[in-house]
Structures are given as C-alpha cells and as structure tokens.
Amino acid sequence: MGRKWNNIKEKKASKDANTSRIYAKFGVEIYVAAKKGEPDPESNRALKVVLERAKTYNVPKAIIDRALEKAKGSSDDHYEELRYEGFGPNGSMVIVDALTNNVNRTASAVRAAFSKNGGSMGVSGSVTYMFDATAVIGLVGKTPDEVLEILMEADVDVRDILEEEESVIVYADPDQFHAVQEAFKNAGVTDFTVAELTMLAQNYVTLPEDAQAQFDKMIDALEDQEDVQQVYHNVDFED
C-alpha cells in the first residue's frame, strides 16, 4: 500500500515547479475549506488539513493569506465538490476530484481529457471501490522504530509505517490524520515531507511503454484543468 509515494509526489511537484497553477488551486481549496466553518485552522479541521498540505508544497504565505481574507469577507463565490471516475489505457483506473463554480464546464473538460487520450468516463462507484481513503504523513530524521514508539506512546493506531527513500511514511485511517500529526509535534517534529488525505489504490498496474505514454498524456490533460484539484490512479511509476 502506498508504495513509491515519494516518487509520485516528486513527479507532480517537479511538473508544477515552474508554474503558478498549483498555487492557484490551493487558493481555491483554502477558500472553500475556510467557508465551510471558521477561517481558523484551530477550529476548522478541514482547513487545517489543507494548510498542512500547502506547507509541504511550499505555497507562498501571500496566497494563503489572500484566500483566508477572501473567506472572511463578503465573497459569495460558490464552489461544488465533484468526483469523477474513469478508465485509462489497459484498464488503468483514475479518480478526479474537482472544485468548480461551473459544473457543466468542468464535466465537459474532464470528459474530453479522458476521451481524447484513450480513456473513458465511468459511473459513480465504478472505480473508488478499488481505492482506500488514506492519511499519508511523512517525516525525516526518525527511524521507523522511533516513529512506531512515538505513535504507541500517544496511543495512535496506524495502518503501516514504511521507509521510502529518505523519509519515513505513515499510512493511517483518514480520521487519524490529526492524531498522528499531534503525536509527532508533541515529540518535537514540526516539519513534514508529506501531509495528505489521499486515495491509494489497493493494487497497482504497470503499463507497457506505449500505453504509459498515452496514460501520462491523459493525466497531464486532467491535471491541466483549472477546476481539477486532485488526480488519483493505480498506475505504478518506473524507478
């Protein structure tokens, strides 16, 4: 479960490194989370999760502050949370999460990204049953045994603790996200290499070279959509 998490995150981060796209998407996500409750992460858990994610992606403080100020103001911008499911080449599976103020625009764009790149849209539930909602939290400077000891002392249950490259990655149920982070923070760990609520495939597939190229093109087309926040899939990356 969750194998090659760092490779996936690094591929995504390197792709977005020279653009403002990822920051703009975080701006929308922070605004939407803040509007769900108080624009204060200490009393709004959804907002706290988004801000922790933003920190690991080095989102500028100005972007965060602007989104929070907008949420505090009189803005009546309304966004809907949507999930699309579909299939890529060779039976690969994809989940697309979006935040949009124009459902028709987003649905059309996502459908086109699938269909023009060898994929197809599925019905609701056709893919998600093959994925698990998971909290993923990574840190450096600790061994897996030290991480396990910290979590045991805090009486926090997790699914798995794995050493992936230079990080120790903890996989847990989504409702344990904050408990895991608090356990680490109480142990003096304040910086995380990853802090995500994600969808992890139960099984991964490896595509032949031609199908992989087509799949990558499809994922790029989906992630390029303004309204798409997250894209999850079950395709393994080559090392």
UniProtKB/TrEMBL annotation:
Subcellular location: Cytoplasm
GO cellular component terms, A-Z: cytosol
HAMAP family xrefs: Transcrip_reg_TACO1, Transcrip_reg_TACO1_YeeN
InterPro entries given in the database record: Integrase-like_N (IPR017856), TACO1_YebC-like_2nd/3rd_dom (IPR048300), TACO1_YebC_N (IPR049083), Transcrip_reg_TACO1-like (IPR002876), Transcrip_reg_TACO1-like_dom3 (IPR026564), Transcrip_reg_TACO1_YeeN (IPR026562), YebC-like (IPR029072)
NCBIfam families: PRK00110.1, PRK12378.1, YebC/PmpR family DNA-binding transcriptional regulator
Biological-process GO terms, alphabetical: regulation of DNA-templated transcription
All copies of domain TACO1/YebC-like N-terminal, residue ranges: 3-73
Protein name: Probable transcriptional regulatory protein GCM10010916_34590
Primary localization: cytoplasm
UniProt organism field: Paenibacillus abyssi
Family membership: Belongs to the TACO1 family. YeeN subfamily.
Keyword Glycosyltransferase on entry: no
SUPFAM superfamilies (UniProt xref): YebC-like
Keyword Metal-binding: no
Positions of the TACO1/YebC-like second and third domain: 79-235
GO molecular function: DNA binding
Keywords of this entry: Cytoplasm, DNA-binding, Transcription, Transcription regulation
